[in-house]
Amino acid sequence: MARLKVGIVGAGSISELHAKGYQEDPRAEIVAVCDRDEDRAIQRSLDWGARAYYTHFSEMLENKEIDAVEILTPHYLHASQIIDALQAGKHVSVERPLALSIEEANQVVQTARQVGKVVQVYEPCLFYKPLLDARNLIDAGEIGKPTGIRISMTVARGQSDTWDFASIEDEASLWRFDPQLSGGSPMLYDVGYQTFCIALFLIGNVEKIEVWRSETPIREGLKLDAPTVAMWKHYQQDCYGTMTLNYAPERKLRTPYHPLEATIAVEGTRGTIDIIRSSDPTQLEAPVELRRDSRKVAYGQRNTAFEDSFVRATRNFIGSCLGEEEPLLGANEARQLLLLTLAYQESSRRGRAVNLQHG
């Protein structure tokens, strides 16, 4: 069987986790790397065994050998790069978000339908085994009827300069602080979007959102959108959700990746499920705990679930391109998540709740 030949555009720190899935899957291989930093493009191509490197995306798309591209670039480039790749006959996996507006998202969906290629929005949290275990427990009625979900997101410090926003060395991440490049506030898509991805996966759709956002100065001219609190009501359910975003620069996670930790609690009429997702493999808590009837049951392994979620997401994309399965988060589903994230952004801007229409 011919292997899926993949080109990766955007060779920053997160690309290591994306490349891991291709390197470990015999059905695919990385054949090209593109980054505007030529030295980094060369280094990554050597690291991953790619036969070609580029500094311009348009040049990489001319490579007829490439079957699929992985887009890991700043948010404002996503929609146009997806469309260009689709029109060049490539399947596409793209980091969140799909686009920065519903109009752009509609163009992506339409183009994908016209050319008949796969578009997957890369969302590793959906492939995080403890989250899948929690969903199965909820579906099995282990906590009864869900009545609430609480999600706490903490941005800490890691072992590398990834997301070390106060450091001059982290200039590569500063595009997040330009609303024209990021699509909003710095953590809008890494936290806001991911929050609703988790909430929809575990509970269901949302009908009303309200956000209270503060800002923390982190260096001259830069502010992080934390602390922030969001509340929402799930659609046609007596179930409510909250999200808190905390910036904790004095807390260190033992991770070379993005120092983001999520703790999730789903409450029901019969019990509670607690989930932790951390890029720190040394965290001590069990990733899933079910509390019911004065008992606590722990599920899952602690060490590799974070990295494994990226590998599983990549496997899903490879299988989708080869016609073996469907993408878990395709363009249509990602458009719905974008709509919720834009409502989150609008509520924080207007200072009042935003209602979403359904049907």
Automatic annotation (TrEMBL):
MF terms (GO), sorted A to Z: nucleotide binding; oxidoreductase activity
SUPFAM superfamilies referenced in this protein's UniProt entry, alphabetically:
Glyceraldehyde-3-phosphate dehydrogenase-like, C-terminal domain, NAD(P)-binding Rossmann-fold domains
All residue ranges annotated as the Gfo/Idh/MocA-like oxidoreductase N-terminal domain in the record = 4-122
Q: Where is the GFO/IDH/MocA-like oxidoreductase domain?
A: 133-273
Pfam families, per this entry? GFO_IDH_MocA (PF01408), GFO_IDH_MocA_C3 (PF22725)
Q: Which InterPro entries match?
A: Gfo/Idh/MocA-like_OxRdtase_N, Gfo/Idh/MocA_oxidoreduct, GFO_IDH_MocA-like_dom, NAD(P)-bd_dom_sf
Annotated keywords: Oxidoreductase
PANTHER family noted in UniProt: CONSERVED EXPRESSED OXIDOREDUCTASE (EUROFUNG), CONSERVED EXPRESSED OXIDOREDUCTASE (EUROFUNG)-RELATED
Question: Which family is annotated?
Answer: Belongs to the Gfo/Idh/MocA family.
Q: What is this protein called?
A: Gfo/Idh/MocA family oxidoreductase
Q: What is the lineage of its organism?
A: Bacteria, Deltaproteobacteria, Bradymonadales, Lujinxingiaceae, Lujinxingia
